[in-house]
Amino acid sequence: MKILQVHNIYKGKTGEETVVEEEKKILDRHGHCVIQFIKDNSDLDKYSKLDKIKILSSLHSSKSIGKELEEFIEKEKPDICHVHNTFPLITPIVYEVCKSKNVPVVQTLHNYKMVCTNSLLFRNGEVCEKCLNKSLYNSIKFKCYRNSYFATAAQAHVIQYHRNKGTWDNLIDRYVCLTEFQKEKVFGDTLKDKVVVKPNFLAENNLVTVREDFFLFVGRLNDSKGLQDLLYLFRRNTHSKFILIGKSDNPEIFRDFKNVKHLGERNRDVVLENMRKCKAVIFPSKYYEGMPMVILEAFSLKKPVISRNRGAMASMINDGVNGLKYEIESGLIDAINKMEENSALVNQLGERAYLDYKENYTEEKGYENLINLYAEVLSSRSLV
User: Fold this and answer.
1) CATH architecture for segment(s) 215-360
2) DSSP letters for 345-374
3) Confidence (pTM)
4) Using one digit for the tens of pLDDT, what is the confidence trace for 336-360?
5) Strands, DSSP E only, in 183-312?
6) N or C: which end of the chain has fewer CB within 10 A?
């Protein structure tokens, strides 16, 4: 099978790029041919002001990209196209081109872009669903995208334009949601026959797991990722040990906590070395998330996760089975104390977390899900 991957890379590598590459590797390894149509937002730094204006004026459909992709498809003749992200350089013209070339399209939703201009359903430090089942133009007054009326209007126009045109309903053969929660939020009762839930997957690293006396946080240290919860915890818990890995705009705030070690941004090897040793992983994100790879890493290393009971985490964490969930800040303290006081519970949760990884998130399971999805889409097309 020949699979065309389409992806617009953000500035700075994200989990989406990891997913694209992991899917390519596993398909290549099983003898399929994977070709890529990739654009990188970092290239925008090289563009002139005039070029940037042209891009803004064609966000809903780039004719130059359409021509380039059309020639690429004619040359490569893929069996199926798997789209991950089109904003802002590729644009949704990819769907029109594939339709014209009779190439079926699978679209993975890594976030909530179809129903939210900032893609997070999160604004001013809180979950926001004001645009769900409503016009995306409602978001302009809140400056949801990059705190700009103009940028938000541009994003809203793209999404609303294609919603009104029927692009989302008619030109995409299958949508892939990462969790049942995401499927419900984005689609509700619509397009049921076109939406499947397929979680991300992760290669097993076969590291030796131990359980030392510290809790680990991995991620950007800002309010949306639960920074205030962590600070609340650190002010009231001076006996447990915590290691933080991730970028912080204000790293000085951690210096007064003697039991907190902030390592800053580190590569994956350092993350895995700390994760294989920690007692548990803390994931206090305040927004819904897509499918956090940090949680998959934790599960693969037999580490339970303490998370906020929200969004993707609510679907992935089974309270008291593979981790602990909390509702408010004080609940995070209670969860930490519960693990500190019961090492047998921590081991039990960790073993079940690993079992969940083996059942749902391995490379083998990921490949099975992918190839079954592609086969089903191609089969449905042949019957039309």
Assistant:
1) 3-Layer(aba) Sandwich (3.40)
2) HHHHHHHHHHHHHHHHTSHHHHHHHHHHHH
3) 0.90
4) 999 999 999 999 999 999 999 999 9
5) 195-197, 215-218, 242-245, 260-262, 280-283, 305-308
6) C
Residues 6+ away with beta carbon under 8 Å from 240: 214, 215, 259, 336, 340
Residue range(s) of every CATH 3.40.50.2000 domain in the chain: 2-110+173-201+363-383, 215-360
Average pLDDT for the chain: 93
2-110+173-201+363-383 homologous superfamily: Glycogen Phosphorylase B; (3.40.50.2000)
For 300-337, what is each residue's pLDDT tens digit?
Answer: 999 999 999 999 999 999 999 999 999 999 999 999 99
Structure tokens belonging to residue 287: 């927004």
Say if residues 173 and 381 touch (Cβ distance below 8 Å). yes
Cα distance between residue 65 and residue 39, in whole Å: 10
* Residues in a beta bridge with 263: none
Write the single-letter amino acid at 266: R
